[in-house]
Amino acid sequence: MRKSFVVKEYVTSYMFLAPWLIGFFVLTLYPMAYSLFLSFTDFSILETPHWIGARNYFQMFVGNDRFPRDLRFANSLWVTFRFVFISVPLRLAFALAVAMLMNRKLRLIPFYRTVYYIPTLLGGSVAISVLWRQLFAGDGALNLILRTLFNANPPSWIADPRFSLYTLILLAVWQFGSPMIIFLAGLKQVPGELYDAADVDGAGRITKFLRITIPALSPVIMFNFIMQTITAFQSFTQAFVVSGGTGGPLDSTMFYSLYLYIRGFNFWNMGYAAAMAWFLLLIIAALTAAIFRLARSRVSYGE
């Protein structure tokens, strides 16, 4: 009797889990396994995959006379790393600064929090990316203001390879709402007694920020840093829309994910694109592991 009851419990449990399990195996695990297989093939979508071993990976990094090294792949890595290592710290610093302002007891604070979160809801959309393209174009609103106020002769920010990447970094920083909300929740958990004791000792704002706020927020900072780094490596929409899907000018906005898309859907080289996707997974996994390792000595959990 007891055994049949336990079996019935197991069956009932797995029935409730069945939708998730089916989704995981069919929509996640199987596509991942198949993409790993495709990364070792020559697959042009319209033809059956042809096994070529590690040639796709070999072509990424080394190449030979028959299959030369992919220089655009190396450039896309360089552009993406620059984007990630500049935009993520700026985004988090800006988000923390705004979160500290929003943590004060002022009138209309709920309204301001909503307003500051709106760019995150809209910033990644195609419409906002198109608007950003118009804003930084040669005859866009920014240049119009510069010419009117300063009689300047500014460049076309998007069309100039010296500045085009930085316009996308600015767009990424503008989408600071998500980490701001997380920082704000973390600030709410910092004991006020710590600041009161610091006031008694005569500590200034900078001292309290460095000795109290940052250590107390270190787990939140680590979480935000990991999540924003992963998101930045996967950035696609902004570069696709602003550059017109080309990664230009001169591949200065050729993000890794955009080049992956071009190889897979423009050149129909899906096997190579799958190899790029798996290499991106390895990059993100390695950086995440490095952040966790660094966090062992840098993050305080208040124990």
Q: Could you characterize the architecture of this molecule?
A:
- This protein is mostly helical and 303 residues long.
- It has helices at residues 2-38, 55-61, 71-102, 109-122, 126-135, 141-150, 164-174, 177-188, 192-200, 205-233, 237-242, 256-266, 270-298, and strands at residues 41-42, 50-51.
- It has a single domain (70-298), classed as Orthogonal Bundle (MetI-like fold).
- It is 72% helix and 1% strand.
- It has a two-stranded antiparallel ribbon.
- Strand 1 (41-42) and strand 2 (50-51) form a beta hairpin.
**Helical run tally:** 13
Mean pLDDT score:
87
Counting DSSP E segments of at least 2 residues, the number of strands comes to 2
Strand content: under 5%
Query: Judging from the principal axes of the Cα atoms, what is the shape?
Result: globular
Helix content: over 70%
Spatial arrangement of strands, main beta sheet: 1-2
Q: Which regions are unreliable across 5 or more consecutive residues at pLDDT < 50?
A: none
**Largest beta-sheet characterization:** 2 strands, antiparallel
- The tally of structural domains comes to 1
Span between termini: 47 Å
CATH architecture descriptor text: Orthogonal Bundle
> What name is given to the CATH topology?
MetI-like fold
CA-based gyration radius: 24 Å
Looking at this structure, what is the CATH superfamily? MetI-like
Q: Given the helix and strand composition, which structural class is it?
A: mainly alpha
**CATH class annotation:** Mainly Alpha
Q: Please trace the helix and strand order, writing H or E for each element.
A: HEEHHHHHHHHHHHH
